[in-house]
Amino acid sequence: MSENPVDLLPELCVLGGVVVALLTGLFVPRGRQWLAVALGAAGAGAGLIAALVAAGRGDGMTFEAFLLDPVTHVTRVTVLGAALVVLALAAGPLRGHRRETEFTVLVLLAALGTILLGASADLLVLVAAYLLASIPAYVLAGFAKDARGTEAALKYYLMGALLGVLMLAGVTVLFGLGRGTSYATLSQNLAHAPPGAVTAGLVALLAGLLFKAGAVPAHHWVPDVTEGAPPVVAAFVTTVPKIGAFAALFRVATDVVPSSAPGPELFAVLAAATMTLGNLAAFAQTNVRRLLAYSTISQAGYLLVPVAVATRTDLAEPALLYYLAAYVVTNLGAFAVVLTTNTDTLTDYRALATRSPALAVSLAVLLLGLIGTPPTAVFVGKLLMFTAAIDAGYTWLAAVALANTVASVFYYLRWLTPVFTRPEDPPPPPRLHRPTILLTYTLATATLALGLLSGLTLLP
Q1: Distance from the CA of 316 to the CA of which of 40, 198, 243, 399 falls in 20 to 30 A?
Q2: Nearest by Cα to 209 from 115, 118, 275, 302
Q3: Distance between CA atoms of 248 and 269, rounded to whole angstroms?
Q4: To which H or E segment does residue 61 belong?
Q5: 370 pLDDT band (50/70/90 cuts)?
Q6: Residue 259: what pLDDT?
Q7: Which pLDDT does position 97 carry in this prediction?
Q8: pTM
Q9: Rounded-to-integer distance, Cα 102 and Cα 285, Å
Q10: Using one digit for the tens of pLDDT, what is the confidence trace for 197-214?
Q11: Rounded distance, CA 453 to CA 176, Å?
């Protein structure tokens, strides 16, 4: 354990970018807010570079509450990379917007909270990180200030506040039982506490983390926020918070839950319920954003599988981390297509292959990637997830995940079928924002590259 501020250099870079962007936005004209955005993005970029450099160092802990290990390194790199992608996706729709600076600041603050959520080794820091990751996201959901966005933001806030209170209650119970808030103290003392009380405290604690992950039973906000918020915000809130949430869930499963508590069984049931509900609800969707919303719920179910087997196999950690990185790239790419086409209904994608063949191919790659089709990155993530579940003796959970993967093919194909339908009268090509479409192609290529190069990525 150390107290060297350099250990927190990635987070300090992001925080510095937030402060500089906010101050710059106060003094530059509204028409030149891009300068504040650029400075904020530069802070995030510097944090990403610092995180990559820090990944080469050994494991440890700093300030008695912040872990430095592979989970933290992957969380840092993935969150900051995703935040930069979101800022790039927002460059077109928000260019010249009078609150362009505020958007950048909110995204970076939520990203900073997400990193702290995944790296925390103390329940009090975990709660603070939860609030930092949540409050800016509530504001982002209502950023457009329209009726649907306001309704989405209100639902998002009310559910987050309710489950946040339950989370605080869980922290209080675990603090009383474990005589401390650090994970190390809890792991020692909770083993001697009454199992029933420990289980009750853990369930309450999980309420907040499952909310951030978008998993059952805290998933109800996901479709409404995804449909009601601006598309770039929907891309952010269905992707970035999951990274920190699953990193935190993994730490709770490995470092806090005592062997006497039914932790693995609870996580396994939640995983099965989440993936099944998400897939079943996606079948009837005709709005692509709601379809992606239920898709992200089902993906949360798959990501819960490594959490469920975290204490029973060494394969759980690489499975979770690789799957998270693969999911982030693929899901952001799918939302980039929605932003590029600026349309939400399945029928509006009819003959997209005729109007823009490259965009149609990119969409096909990304949707097949979300299914887990080789050679995409999510395929490798799912393969690792299946292997971890079987190695831990949870063959039934692997079977449920496989059945849900097969079922998901049908609703993704409902989106792809009109894309490659040939119309009687060729429609004009869509008017596309060039930087956004280039970013879409990049994300689709990255999905394939992460899958094809997975052997090199996963080498120790």
Answers
A1: 198
A2: 118
A3: 18
A4: strand 60-62
A5: very high
A6: 84
A7: 79
A8: 0.95
A9: 33
A10: 999 999 999 999 999 999
A11: 48
- How many other β-carbons are positioned within 10 Å of the β-carbon of residue 373? 18
Task: Return the structure tokens found at 371.
Answer: 């299914």
| Cβ(314)–Cβ(248) below 8 Å | no
- Give the number of other CB atoms < 10 A from CB of residue 184: 15
Could you identify the residue written with the tokens 């979300």?
370
Judge whether 425 and 351 are in contact, CB under 8 Å: no
Greater confidence (460 vs 225) lies with 225
Q: What is the pLDDT of residues 389-406, one digit of tens each?
A: 999 999 999 999 999 999
Rounded CA separation 103/275 (Å): 32
What Rg value do the Cα atoms of the chain yield, rounded?
A: 21
Which letter does DSSP use for residue 66 in this model? E
Give the closest residue to 270 by CA, choosing from 245, 237, 303, 314.
303
Rounded CA-CA distance 396/155 in Å is: 35
3-state secondary structure 283-332: CCCCEHHHHHHHHHHHHHHHHHHHHHCCCCCCCHHHHHHHHHHHHHHHHH
Contact (CB, 8 A) for 298 and 279: yes
Q: Alpha-carbon distance 77 to 82, whole Å?
A: 8
CA distance 407 to 334: 19
Residue type at 362 in one-letter notation: S
Structure tokens at 295: 């898709």
Q: What tokens were used for 332? A: 């952001």
User: Letter for the amino acid at 163?
Assistant: L
Q: Which helix (H) or strand (E) holds 33?
A: none
CA 128 to chain centre: 18
Q: Which two tokens stand for residue 442?
A: 């990049």
Examine the pLDDT at 50 and tell me if it is beyond 70: yes
Using the structure block, give the residue that is written with the tokens 């982030």.
328
Closest CA to 36 of 14, 51, 55, 17: 17
The first and second tokens of residue 340, run together, are 């590029």
CB 349 within 8 A of CB 341: yes
pLDDT of residue 13: 97
CA atoms within 13 A on the CB side of 207: 19
Tokens of 418: 């009109």
Distance, CA of 164 to CA of 437 (rounded, Å): 38
DSSP for 75-139, please give it.
HHHHHHHHHHHHHHHHHHHHTT-TTHHHHHHHHHHHHHHHHHHHHB-BHHHHHHHHHHHHHHHHH
Q: Are 133 and 242 in contact (CB under 8 A)?
A: no
What letter does residue 343 receive in the DSSP assignment?
A: -
Residue with the two structure tokens 């083993």: 191
